[in-house]
Amino acid sequence: MRRRDARPQGTGTAGPTGARHGEDADGTPRHMNAPKGLPLWLKIVTGVVSVALVAGVAFAAFWFIRLQTNITKAPLSAGETRNAGDPLVDDKTDRLQILILGSDTRDGKNAEYGSTEDSTGYGHSDVMMLLDISADNKRVNVLSFPRDLLVDVPQCTDRTNNQTFPARSGVMINEAMAEAGIGCAVDTVNQLTGLEIDHFMMADFNAVKELSHAVGGVNVCVSDPVFDPDSRLRLAKGDSLVEGEQALAFLRTRHAFGDGGDLGRIKGQQAFLSSLTRKLKDEGTLGNPQRLLQIADVVTQNLTVDEGLASVPSLLTIGGRLKDIDVSKVAFVAVPTQAAAADINRLELIEPQASQLFAALRADLDLTTPGATAPPAPSESPAPQPTATTPPAPAYDKAIQPVAVANGSGVATRAQELMTVLTGNGFAQTVSYLANPVDQTVLYYGPGFADVAADVATLFGIPAAQVQEAPGVAGVQLYVGTDFSSGTAYGAASVPSDVVNQTANDAVCQQVNPLYIDQQ
């Protein structure tokens, strides 16, 4: 006998309309239909976008992990003047100064360029350049330091073992990092220039080769066919596209250019970087994230940076800041040097030109505009001006006041420049003579000439502390020191003439040393 509650065969339970649970009235399973208000095409698009986002995140994560793993870092300073882990600047918006170092270590892939002894310690800085990016990203200075330059190295501590090395005097600048590491090179440049470096990047020989491959070669020019057996550079006369070993040889050659000294080598390096800058700019590489990532991958495998720069976003920020730069405002400069008095095979700074250059850098002046000036720093304020409570200086006839200019600046034409200012302001009785070099400018005056001295001090901005009475002086004497070697306002920084070797807009052909002209 059939049970009264017997149900039709199947697993579903019929609803009021006869459809089973989980089915629409037409028998279609509900999970096959899109929710009300969400068309099927939109659901498909949503799925595709979700997959794309996941893929994008995975891609970004891959590059972030890959590049971050590549990076090697070291302390920014070897001294006690700063906490190397603290952020010093906003890398995106502030003026940025980065010390670029090329290590001559022969470890690992670099072993073919030297012996085991060359690989001991931290190595020497084969290349040392200061990259200075203006806050508005409109100007870049690249300042080169010759490796043979004799400098004073401050006390430095190796952060890996806390060993402290005493300060040294008169040593080659490329030895600064040999004992205590890269931070000691940073501290040395800070001490030499009065600047405060924000970051450093140090690359080895392999980095140059790999980078030149990554960009598809760099165009260089030589005046004659050249062969240098030491660096292995061999190029035909005229333009050549160099990459790999030949790119490295072009940067390393120490004898092939100029007179065979370090200054010729620096000009070759600057020409190479100028050409590289133009190429990256013309091809839009710095504005192409994918291309930039490829180059960053190559570079970071052979790069050591400070803790503040040891992240992928920080490195990409630097590239992003340079993408729109006007190449005519990328200035390549070499520190003014001459043969050292103690050793003609070494170099020393030329004064006052070097101090003038460093002052211009500290004032953030445009080095491509010779003569550009900045006002004196507050600590170098000129003599105080008369106030309402100060009685005016007694009237006198400027035309008959004896004013002398003693030129102790070391610049032959300096006295004439200052005399022109004096005569243009009514001091007709001016004379000049060559004097022994002095470091500081002082304005001397004899009895009865205090009022004249005050006016001359105001004219040139000489601080009151440097205006002195001297009974032996007849009238007023402006004794010009090396601290006032240019301009007409004492303490004002100005851009020296002929300080820029070339800009990135210039294609310069290197003059080959006659001894290294290839005879084949």
UniProtKB/TrEMBL annotation:
Annotated transmembrane regions: 40-65
Gene3D superfamilies per UniProt: 3.30.70.2390, LCP protein (3.40.630.190)
Pfam families the UniProt entry points to: LytR_C, LytR_cpsA_psr
Domain of life: Bacteria
Biased composition (Low complexity): 8-19
NCBIfam families (UniProt xref): lytR_cpsA_psr (TIGR00350)
Family per similarity comment: Belongs to the LytR/CpsA/Psr (LCP) family.
The protein's name in its UniProt record: Cell envelope-related transcriptional attenuator domain protein
Organism this protein belongs to: Paenarthrobacter aurescens (strain TC1)
